[in-house]
User: Which sequence fits this backbone?
């Protein structure tokens, strides 16, 4: 009936609003936590620095781009030395090593939670092809993407 479909639509909108409000509240709490805790180190500490936060957002939002240290520096408006130094101080990694780890984390999630082919995943996260991704994945995690997808017990 029209009434039940209207009620169902209303419930969907309510859930969407609640989800959005929860997200806003989470980010407000996270922002406050970061601002009030000077001892932070790592990802959260890097978010305090607007330029590093911009770099992290760019890398997270666009892992498929053919990033180089020069293009990252250009986007962030930072010199290579400054970016390398600040990244290392906060994240204990170089920007390119961080990008590699982020890409592999994305690959792990996509292999585990999607039916995309390894070639499609490679395209989405910035690898040249499935072979290159498979090699990096196995080196990083100690098992192959196919073992993860099959749910082998040792994974």
Assistant:
């Amino acid at each position: 009936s029209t009434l039940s479909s209207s009620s169902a639509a209303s419930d969907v909108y309510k859930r969407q609003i609640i989800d959005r409000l929860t997200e806003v509240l989470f980010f407000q709490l996270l922002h406050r936590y970061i601002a009030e805790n000077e001892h932070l180190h790592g990802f959260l500490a890097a978010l305090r620095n607007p330029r590093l936060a911009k770099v992290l957002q760019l890398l997270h939002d666009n892992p498929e781009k053919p990033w180089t240290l020069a293009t990252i520096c250009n986007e962030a408006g930072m010199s290579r030395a400054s970016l390398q130094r600040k990244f290392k101080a906060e994240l204990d990694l170089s920007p390119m090593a961080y990008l590699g780890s982020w890409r592999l984390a994305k690959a792990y999630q996509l292999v585990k939670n999607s039916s995309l082919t390894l070639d499609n995943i490679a395209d989405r996260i910035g690898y040249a092809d499935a072979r290159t991704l498979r090699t990096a994945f196995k080196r990083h995690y100690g098992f192959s993407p196919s073992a993860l997808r099959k749910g082998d017990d040792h994974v």
Remarks:
- Residues 2-36 form the longest helix (35 residues).
